[in-house]
Batch of 2 targets.
Target 1
Amino acid sequence: MTFLNYLISGISLGSIYAIIALGYTMVYGIAKMLNFAHGDVIMVGAYICFYAVSRYSLPPLVGVILAMLVCTVLGIVVERLAYKPLRSAPSLAVLITAIGVSYFLQNAALLLWSSNPKVFPNAFVINTIDEAGNPVVQSSIDLFGGQLKVSFVTIATIAICIVIMLALLWFTSKTRLGKAMRACSEDKGAAQLMGINVNATISMTFAIGSGLAAIAGVLLCSAYPTLVPTTGSMPGIKAFTAAVFGGIGSIPGALLGGLLLGIIEIFAKAYISTQLSDAIVFAVLIVVLLVKPAGLLGKQIREKV
Amino acid sequence: MEPILKVDDINVYYGSIHAIKGVSFEVQEGEIVTLIGANGAGKSTTLNTISGLLHSKTGSVTFLGENLAKVPAHKIVSKGLALVPEGRRIFLQMTVQENLEMGAYTQSGKTADADLEKVYAQFPRLKERYRQVAGTLSGGEQQMLAMGRALMSRPKLLMLDEPSMGLAPILVEQIFEIIQNLHKAGTTILLVEQNAQAALSVADRGYVLETGKVVTTGTGAELLASPVIKKAYLGG
């Protein structure tokens, strides 16, 4: 049962990584840049949700929607102000700018919200009454006669991840805008010749990625409830790793990479060493990239002449 | 008669390299016009400038009476001007049908469905392979897909950049047949080719480009017969 428990925790953590990795992979696919500020968008989303729920007593769902709105706008604004002017600049300049945006967001959060950790409220609870008639806050469900305890956050995280993944696959394979996005990621010039507005498509991609980051932020802080301005950076790096692991640019790759990374991390913590878990995660990445440099589901493009 | 396309004194630079030096020419409605010239003469640059992917420092490109200088590339196709780019540039990871759908991006869903049938009728090979990923097609099929994709936008003027490049002679013949059929069906065509022989034999008129300038012009037959052209471009 403990094994199953760890596995579920791993899948849940992996689902969060996967949702973040989607933002990395979609933006990379279309703008061919690594948006290292993506992790910090998670943090902003978590703060917005925290303030909406804890300070202004709004219902958690409203908090999540508010966080998504703010992050979507933030994503679009960052792209317009910081990345769009560098569209034809060398990729190193864009990379450094992304790191700059990351520090800017962290420090802005430090100024606005201070470095005092905020305790994130768990929204995934059910208020019930026990046998004695006292109100009880239930945050998990017991399975197999109490041998397996699964929190609602875990269940919600996995479910939300599945829904997001299906929605994105549907969007990119069935809708006009989604197909235009794929066309842009292959050849921007040819996409323009089709009449596709490439700048608008890139904005849309940043908007989607950042909106997903907000969801990931709320889920992450519901599971690990300490919120500080650097909350987003480590999950951001892990999710970036997951995206590379699965094959950057590939949406199913982000899911696979995220899940594997989460499971490996939890198992490493449980069975090997808590301190070494990150080292183990990154060692696995190195081995995978040695064998498959394009990542697990990365596309090897063959061109015909 | 007012030409459908009028290119007037365009100058295009790649950084400090002056690639197009005051090129002017025009295309009348219903014509096949060809631009011929050696590698690096500026043929593709000219087409990319007309379609808005590159910009001219001076002069103007007028299409159906409208100056395209300030029109962004993605808005040009809906005006009836489509380019089949050099190297085809189809979306290799998308299916044949998705490529064609992208061609109809500016069209309504209804016209796109009707046009899809038309393109499939014209290129039965594409219909056979409609669910296949475009990267798995042969070179000739890819060229047909690129042409079909451009036709999906219902162009009044179709620009083709080196459609015969890298194709076996039998396929080149086929592609030129298709070009003539499109022309008969009423599409005006601006054709850029290194295969001057083939291009001039289908063209009404031709312009010869050399290092970014128009050096000669005439009807297709005149240029084919001209001794200078023969020597420089027709191998004898």
Target 2
Amino acid sequence: MTAVLRVENLTVDVGNLRIVDGLDLELRAGERVALVGESGSGKSMTARALLRLDPSVTVGGQVWLGDRDLVTLSEKQMQRVRGTELAMVFQDPSTALNPLRRVGDQVAEPLRIRGVSRRDARRRAAEMLDRLGVPRAAERLNAYPHEFSGGMRQRVMLAAALITGPRVLIADEPTTALDVRVQEKVLALIEQLAAEDGIAVLLITHDLGIVAGFADRVAVMYAGRKVEENSVETFFAGPSHPYGRGLLNSVPRVDRALTERLDTIPGTAVKPSARPPGCSFHPRCSAAVSRCSAEAPVLVTIGSGQVACHEV
Amino acid sequence: MRSDLLTADGLTKRYGRFTAIEDVSFTLRAGEVLGLVGESGSGKSTTVRCLVGLTKPDAGTVSYDGEPLQGRAAWHRFRREAQMVFQDPYASLNPRMTVAEIVGEGLRVHGIERTAAGRRARVTTLLGQVGLDAGDLDRYPRSFSGGQRQRIAIARAIAVEPRVLICDEPVSALDVSVQAQVVNVLRDMGRELGLSILFIAHDLAVVRYLCDRLVVLDQGRIAEQGTREQIYDNPQAPYTRSLLAAVPIPDPAAERERRHRQKESAR
């Protein structure tokens, strides 16, 4: 299977601060990959860097979409990639939509920009909204975002992202602001449409419960670096990296007997500005040895996965 | 039998033609942790606002320690004996005050520690209880992470030796590893200090860890209330069942099975 998106040695710098440090990641056609980590781990910065959304940050390394390296494209070329081949949805559907424009126009916009007639674009917008389970889609093209619930707004966002038939969808915490029952429906829709249209999905999330049901593979970031990557089966059977294990053990679960206390990871996540020498995770790691504070571990392949840890 | 400490009786609140909550009645008993759960729009926040007097209900009453909350004296006592921890640790701490001032303010206002030295000593102890230390006394909120800020908020709340702690989604904004730390701190504090805790949350997995009993709100009305075992092992209301069925499980096989069941039942 060939990769539709291949990220090599990605770096993201804000000023002279390295937020993302040498990330490799691959998405194959139709594959669903989750990028997980705590706030400040660099997962959202990675997503935004792939689309080069922030002009003020410096993106390094290579981002191969087919045979083009997105990092080397001009802004004008990049504009054509965004929303056609590489689409993104964000966490908060109430701020990502324009409150003053009709929903139909916002969903149809990517097509209009590409010269599709108003009539055709509206028809396809209605079809897309219908596929995403928006009731009476054709009538509701003229409604405004505030007339929709949070879950329906996220469907509108998805419709706008998917209407041009992208090869890759980047979804940054797309259901975090939604209630669990709505979250479930939205994720099922993303899964269904991605499968039908062969779209690869990169899901950025901190919620491991979602990852287990949605993703094929999971990559874990800590302090701007990937520390582990595994199939979901391998990861949830037992993460390779102590940080992955800590994350998984901290999740309260309804399917297990109650324990006296929740497991925690001691301390707090380090900021990229205060990354300690050696392994970034060593100050919080119960398995750390002296080598961990001196020498940064490199990612090594274990089975079908990868891990960066001296103690594995 | 534990005695009733804080009771909502028939609370109803309307905004124009919209009914936010209707006939909400429940009791927080001494020494227990009571979960108030529901989705957004279920009326959790309105209920809390009525309980603490931020909103006047259109009907119904709130009683504290056997007496209706009426008149200045009753409210004054309640406001000292009931403390709150809010959802957003970035908005609920004054950025211009040091940790010593934030946590010590209640001690000063309520005349518990009248000298600055006494307050400082007491604040140091409190910080220790929530897992921070004396070195943090003179720092400002901006130098703390979300989880640390929530510990400061908990220290502030327990400083005045309350009997009741009202926690409004206190861990929703936190990362999972930090969420677990704060949940443990709340649980330890509740037990050590014999607190009665009203824990408002939407995450049923977190609530299960912390709460002895639950009140489930659905569109402003109580769908169901009962002990933890009743709600999780044998939920009666269809609404409770559908909420529980939607909680994701961090296990691919279990999650596939759960989602399969969901699809079947949707047919």
